[in-house]
Amino acid sequence: MVPVEYYLLLSSAVFCIGLYGVLTRRNALYFLMSVELMLNAANINLIAFSLMWGNLTGQTFALFTIALAAAEVAVGIGIILVLYRNFGDIDVMDAATMRW
Amino acid sequence: MVSVSAYAQAIVLLPFVSFVVALFARDNLPKGGAYSGIAATAGSLLLSLATLAAVYGGRTVNETFYTWAVGTGAQDWTLSFGALIDPLSALMLVIVSLIALLVHVFSLGYMNDEGEEDLPRYYAGLGLFTASMLGFVIADNLLMAFMFFELVGLCSYLLIGFHFREPGPPSAAKKAFLVTRFGDYFFLIGVVAVFTTFGTAAFAGAESFPHLAEAALGGDATVWTPGNMAESTWFTIVGLLVLGGVIGKSAQFPLHTWLPDAMEGPTPVSALIHAATMVAAGVYLVARMYGFYVLSPTAMGIIALVGGFTALFAATMGVVKQELKQVLAYSTISQYGYMMLALGSGGYVAAVFHLTTHAFFKALLFLGAGSVIIAMHHVEDMWEMGGLKNKLPVTYWTFLAGSLALAGIFPFAGFWSKDEILYETLIHGLNEPLLLIGYVFGLLAVPVTAFYTFRMVFLTFHGEPRSDLARDPHPVRWNVKGPLSVLGVLAVVTGGINLVPVKKVLGIKGIDVLHKWLNNDWGGIEGLSSHHYAKIGPYESGYLFGGEAATVIAGAAVSLTLALAGLALAWRLYGVADPAEHTAKLGQIRELLYNNYYQDEYQVRIADAVRDAASGADTFDQGVVDGVVNGVSSVSLLSSERIRRVQTGIVGNYALLLTLGLTTLLVVFALIGGWFQ
Amino acid sequence: MIIEALLAATFLSAVIVFALPDEYAPKTAFGLSLVPVAGSLYMWATFTGSGNALTGGDIAFQTVLPWLEVAGYTFQWYVGVDGISLPLVVLTTFLTTLAIVSAWTPIDTRKSQFYGLMLLMEANLIGVFTALDFFAWFVFWEAVLVPMYFLIGVWGGPRRQYAAIKFFVYTNIASLVMFIGFMMLVVSLPINSFGLPAITQSLAAGELGNFYFLAPDALAAVAFAALFIGFAVKVPVVPVHTWLPDAHVEAPTPVSVMLAGVLLKMGTYALLRFNFTMLPEQASAFAVPIAAIAVLSVIYGAMLALAQQDLKRIVAYSSVSSMGYVILGLVAFTEFGLGGATFQMIAHGLISGLMFMAVGVIYNATHTRLVGDMSGLADRMPVAVWILVAGAFAYMGLPLMAGFAGEFFIFVGSFGSTVLPSAPLFTGLAMFGIVIVAGYLLFAMQRTLFGPFRLETEYELDRAPIHDIAPLAALLAAIIVLGVVPSLFWNMILDATVPLLDLLGGGAL
Predict the structure, then answer these.
(1) Could you read off the pLDDT of B333-386 as tens digits, one per residue?
(2) What ipTM was predicted for this assembly?
(3) B181 and chain C: CB distance < 8 Å anywhere?
(4) Is residue C318 part of a domain?
(5) What letters, b where the CB count within 10 A reaches 16 and e where it falls short, cover A43-64?
(6) Is C343 a domain residue?
C-alpha cells in the first residue's frame, strides 16, 4: 500500500498549484478553476486519511465536497457572468467598487 | 368673634381675588376691573382698620396658618406662612390698603378716562401688587417675607413695563427687576443663613431668630456659625446680607439707579411703588426685624451711614431735574434715606413715623403730579408748565400741602417726622461720632430738599404759562380730586399722631401716640416693642445745652431754618413770573448732577463687561470645550480614513493576505510549539 | 403589578400608533398617553412605600421574579418605586402627554412613527425610573437613546444628523465608562445578584473585596469616578455639556421638552441612586471637586446662556445651570439638600418643559428663534407670550412657583452641610446664578416680546391655536400648584432621602 505521505505530497502540490493560480491569475475563470484545484487537494487529503484509518467518514465528506463544488461552480459561473455584464470583462481586479 | 388672624388673611386675599377676577374675566368687567379692585381694596382697608382696632384692644396675633414644607432629622425646620399682627404691622396694613384704595380710585381718572387699552391687565397688576405687599406686611417669618418681597418685585416689573409697546418701559422694568434682584441675592443668602444658624426664621416669640440671637450673644444659647466664627461677627454679616435686599428695594445707594427709570410706569403705579409698596418694603423689613439689627452696632452704623449719605446724595440730583416725576423720584430715594438713617441710629419710632407721613405726602405728590400730567396731556417737562395754580386749584392746594410736608415746614406732617429723625440721630450721635456724620448728611439734605421741592412747585404752578398746553389744561374729575383731597388732609394732620417735641418742651403727657403705640402701651408682642429695642440697642443718649428740651428746640430750630432758607432761595430764583434756567450757572456741577453722578454709566459698564465675559465664555466653549469633543471625533474619523485603505476591494489582495496570515500563524505556532527545535 | 401594566400599556400604545395611518396618529397617541398618566397618578394616590428603596425601605408596587441565570449571577425582573422614583414617573407620564399635544402643530411628516417613538421613549423612561435590577435598568437606560436618536435625526433641524450622532455617541461612551465602573464594583462583591438593593446593602456592610490589584478603597474610588463621569454626561455638567445645546437646537419642540424635562433627570436620578446611595463615603471624599463642578456648571452655564442669540440655546444652556443646583444639593448630603435636589428635578422638568414649549409656539408662528429677528410679540400673541413670561419668572425662581421651592430647599440644605467643607462659600457662589438667570431671561424677553412689533421673517402672526396653548397652561398650573403646595411630593421625597443620611452617620449639623 502506498504510504499516506505520498498522498499528502500530491495533495500539497495540487493545493499549491491552486493557490498560485488564485494569487497570480486575473481572469475569473482561471480563478474558479484554481479554487476547484484547492478543493480537490482537500478531497485527496480526506480520502488519504480515510484509507489510512480504515474509516469511511472521510470518503463521505469527500463526496459531499464534490457535490458542493459542483454547486459552487454553478454559483461561480453565475457571478462571472454578472461580472462580465457589469464590467465588460472578467478581470477580478476591476470589480473593486464595493469596498467602502 | 372672627379671629384677627382671619382678618389678616382676608386682607391679603381680597386684592388677590381682584387680581384673579381681572385676569380671567378680562373684557367682561365694567371699567376694566377698576370696580372690583376698588371694592377689594376698600374691603382690605376696612378690615385693616378693624385689625388696628383689635390691636388697640390688645388682641395681637402671631400664628402660623399654612405649613409650606417641613424637614426632619437634623434640619427639622418648618417653612411656613403665618400672620404677625402687632402695632407695627397693623399700622402698615392701614397705610398700604389706604394708599392702594386711593390709587385704584385715581386710576379711574388717570387710566380709564384717558382711554388706555388693556385695563384688565393693569388692574390685575395693581391687585396682585397690593396683595403681595399686604402679604409681606403680615409675614411672621423671614422666608415668607422674602417670598412676598419677590412677588412685589414681579408686580413692579409688570406694572413699570405696562406700556410694553414702547421701547422705554420694558427696559426700565427690566432694570428695576434686575437691580433689585441683585440686592435680593444677598437677601436670599441671608434667609438661608438665618435658617442654618437659628433653625427658624420667625420674627417674634421665644423661638424667633432675633430672640435666639440675643440669647446667643448673652451666652444663653448656642447657634451654628460657619467655621466657628464669633457670633457677633456672624450676626453682623447675616444682618448685612439681608440689608442687601433692603438697599435694592428701598433704592439706597448704590442700588438706587432703577428707581428714576421706573418713572416709565403709569403715574398711579409710581405713587403705589413709592409711597406704600415696593420701596417701603425695604425699610419695613428692617423695622420688622429690628430686634436682630440692634444687636449689631456695625450693621446699625452701616445702615445709618448708607441712609444719611443717600438722603443727601439723592437730594442733590433732584435739584436739576426738568421733569416733574424725576424730581419726585429723587426725593423718594432721599426720604427713604432718612428712614434708614433713623433706623441705623436707633430711632425706630422716628423711622416708622416718617414711613407713615411719607406714605401720605409722597402718594399725594405723585397723584398730584398725575393730575398735572392729565391736565398737560402727558407732558412732564416742568419748563412747559407754569401758572397752573388758578386752573387746577384742588391739585394746587393739595400739592402745596404735600410739598410743605416734604420740605419739612412747620406744622406739616413731614416736619414732625423728619425732625424726630434728626433729633434721634443727634442725641445718639453725641456719643457715637459715626452717627454725627449721618446727622450732618441728613441736616445738609434739609435745605436741598426744600429747594428742589419748591423749585418744582414754582415751576409747575406759579408764574406765567410757558406753553399752549399750560394755558389751556385738560380738566380733571372727582376721581382725581377725591384721592388728592383725602391725602391733602392727611399730609397736614398726620404729624399730630406723634407730637414728641411738644411733649418734651411743654411737658404735655399723652400726645406722643405713635410712641406709645409702638411701645406696646395698648398691647403688642413681647420683644417687639420700642423700649425693648432701646434696651438691647447699642446707643446711649446725650444732650446739648444741658437738657432734653433745649436739645429739641435747638435741633428743630436749625432744621426749620435750613428748610426755610432752601424755600426762600427757590422762591427768589423761581418764584417769578418768567423764571430762568439757573441750573446752567452751575456749569460742570450741573452736568454731574444731571447725569446722576454717572452712577448709571458705571452700572451699564458693569453689565456690558459681564456680557463681554459671557461672549468670551461662549467663544471658549465653542472653541475649546466643544473643540475637544469634535477633535476626538475627527481623530477617530481621520484614523479610520487611513485604516480602511487596507480594504482594496481586489480579491487577489484578500487571497494573498489570507495566505500570508495563515502562513504567519503556522510559523508562530510552530515556533511556540517547538517544531524547529 | 401596576408597574408592569403601565409598561405594557405604554409599549402597546407605541405599537398601535406605529401601525396607524398618519392622520389618526396624533389624537390616538394623545388618548393612549392618558393611560399612563392615569396609572401614575393612581400610583401616587395609593403610594404606601416608606424609606429608600435601596437601603431596605418598604418598596411600593414591587415585583421580584427570577429571570435569567448567567455565569453564576441571577438577573431578576425587579421593579418598584419609592419616594424618589415615583415623582419622576409622574413627571414622565405627564410631560409626555403634553409633549405629544405640543407636537400637533410642528410635526407634519411621518406622524405615526413620530408619536410611536415618543410613546416608546416614554415606556423606556418609566422602565429606567422603576427598575431595581441593574440588568433591566441598563437595558431601559440604553433603550431610551434609540427613539431619541431617531426623533432628533429624522424630525430635527438642518444639522440634525450631526446633533443626533453627537448625542448618541457622547452619551453612549459615557454609558460604557459607567458600565465598566459598575461591573468592577459588582464582581468584587460576594453576592450573586444584580439587584440594586442587594448591591447597596452589601456595599454598606463593607463587603467589597479586591479587584485584581485594586484594594477595596481604591476600587470604590475608581468606580465612583467612572460612575460619576458616566452620569455627568447625561446631566450634563460642565465640561461635558456640549452635546446638549446642539441636540436641543436641532430637536423639534416636543423632543426638546422630553430631552430637557425627563432625559436630563435620568443623569441626576442615577447619580443619586448609584453614586450618592451606594458610595456615600467616596461622595463625601470627593465633595469639594464635585461642588466646584456644580458651581462651575451654574455660573458658566448661565454665562453661556447670556451670550446666546437663539432662544432655544438660551433655554438649553440655562438647563446646564439649573442642573448644577441639583448636583450641589446632592453633594451637600443633608435633608434639604438631597430632598431639594430631587424636588428640583421635578421642578426643572416642568419649567424647562414649559419654556421649550413656549419658545416652540413662538417658532411655529414666526419661523425664527433669533432674538434679533423679532420684537413686540406680546402685541400679537398675548396669551402665549404672557405664559412664557410666567415661565421665565418660574425659571428665575419666583416664590410660590416650583422652581423657587427646589432652589430654596437646595440652598438652605447645602449652606450648613458638614459633608462639604466651605459649604457656605460654595452655596453663596452658586446662588449668584439667580442673578444671571434673571439677567439673560429679562434681556431676551425685553428684546423679543416687548417694544414695538417687528418681525424679520415673512409670516402673518396670529393668536396661537388652543392646542398649542393648552399644554402651556397645564404646565404653568402644575408649576404654581407645586410651588404653593410642595408637600404633594416633598414629604415622600424626604421620606426616601432621609435614610441615606444614616449612611454617613447623620449628615449635617
Answers:
(1) 999 999 999 999 888 999 999 999 999 999 999 999 988 888 888 888 888 887
(2) 0.93
(3) yes
(4) yes
(5) bbbbbbbbeeeeeeebeebbee
(6) yes
